[in-house]
């Protein structure tokens, strides 16, 4: 089978040599031998397991392992690397063992190195097995020089006299695929290839690029001798492995700068031309070892896949407990954890608490697999004298590695809901202002019923007993009329009873109809005009009267949100059901976004820098940007899109940098990725990157105004 696949691959590359075509051979050339073989392999689920377990990992039979690795390398383009290298658990460690200095079988060593390159092409594997590279990378570099010397000796010194003056031409190296492996055990007849012109016509008619052929593309230039394993192919496997390791770039940078340790010291003059060209390329592009512009661009285009997002929802005020009572926070603080690269949130351990005594912290439960957990037993005791505090969430992985400590927004402590009937400037923090965030919940009178929270799920409002949403509440501006929509019809100020308000979900932007907020006293809505000057305060019970329907109120029935029809019991009073009485409280959201772009780092992710605003000063080539926020450190650098810039650290609240020229930014990549199609402006996301390659998204963008519209070049 190995011979058949290698022959089909060689034939395919001779007929269709385009290395930039990333489509699977079966899609571009459905009648090609290679395409059909790979299709059959991909459709055989049992073969992969049989190959890996019974052949590649065969005990006490090196020759069987060699042939298994050879076949696996030939099959890589048809397989999913995540699945191939996920089981058994000792598969990748065994590859490190075979490829490393302890191995005495050169053929097995070479094939294992090629498979390692494929396995580490998956960022999850690269991060998980990073520690193995500590010994593997120095050995790989040493092995590369040794192999090159042997090639030079075999060629009578000819190879040693060759000097590379430009980027490495990989057509000299011969190679194979660096992604995932798999094969098929049943025999089949390979169909005859049709005429080349017909296949080229099929290629023109196809535009489907959703395939795995991009896996073999980096290896598809030139020919290769897979068996017996040639020295050139072995060298290429090593380069593929080194390219997949962020640590390789780290070592190369330190070697250039002369700062590497004695253990890792490799002088530049000892490196082969292949290595020095890798060094020159990475040192030019990569101010941080391992984080290249292309890697940053990949992250920016696939944030949903790479980025970890931790969100803490909580009320802005909390009632203090007295004596033996425990007034649990309501709504309960809720932590959402969206993990990077499809990792499951339940693989993490998290704790939340109000002080530094971890014994009092509550463990969050992510076992539901939905990525969120509510802390229902959090309270603040009367022995705590603080007027303001933060909740802290500590996150670790299942191995005990600390991810970080993430604080909430500030929370104010109150003894009980305020009863001020007139607005007092000194008490403004106890009132609710237009444009701020709130949570709405219903606390039933019966102890047997659970508190329900106004929540938005799948673009629909519901009354949930487990989750709650943060809403932005606005004062509707009656004077500008109901025809005006959006922000043009809202105004600033503090909410007062009788005001018309709009509730907008802070995530989806879905809003409830305009409603009038009313004061509630023992199931009775007070409509008296004297309430119009009374401010809406924290933890007040209120009702929401539908505009245009005097007796209709926002209410709940189990999990459904409905309109309840009240009974008129007087000129200025309505009687409502228990489900139409809501409690309102200010709420906040703390959000942290990060990605370990060069693999798992040795220090915690926190403190996470938070960018709150951006100021632009100057004009033309002297334009500078100032970022304002918190938890800035000297080891942070500002990136405009995929371009790093020199950054000045002024304080933990201020960073500044010079804006890169629009000419530098308007290249082929940014022109189609970051250009606003409507305005023509280049709009670059602003990121902060730590010196170990951790990326923190700021949520802000910098816009270069269209040169055509503004008459500039």
UniProtKB/TrEMBL annotation:
Coiled-coil positions: none
Origin superkingdom: Eukaryota
SMART domains hit by this protein: BTD (SM01268), LAG1_DNAbind (SM01267)
Gene3D superfamilies: 2.80.10.50, Immunoglobulins, LAG1, DNA binding domain
Assigned GO CC terms: nucleus
GO molecular function per UniProt: DNA-binding transcription activator activity, RNA polymerase II-specific; RNA polymerase II cis-regulatory region sequence-specific DNA binding
Annotated compartments: Nucleus
Principal location: nucleus
Pfam families reported in the protein's UniProt record: BTD, LAG1-DNAbind, TIG_SUH
Keywords, ordered alphabetically: DNA-binding, Nucleus, Transcription, Transcription regulation
Domain RBP-J/Cbf11/Cbf12 DNA binding: from-to ranges: 309-428
Residues annotated as domain Beta-trefoil DNA-binding: 430-582
Region (Disordered): 154-176
Protein family per UniProt: Belongs to the Su(H) family.
Protein name: Uncharacterized protein
Organism: Caenorhabditis brenneri (Nematode worm)
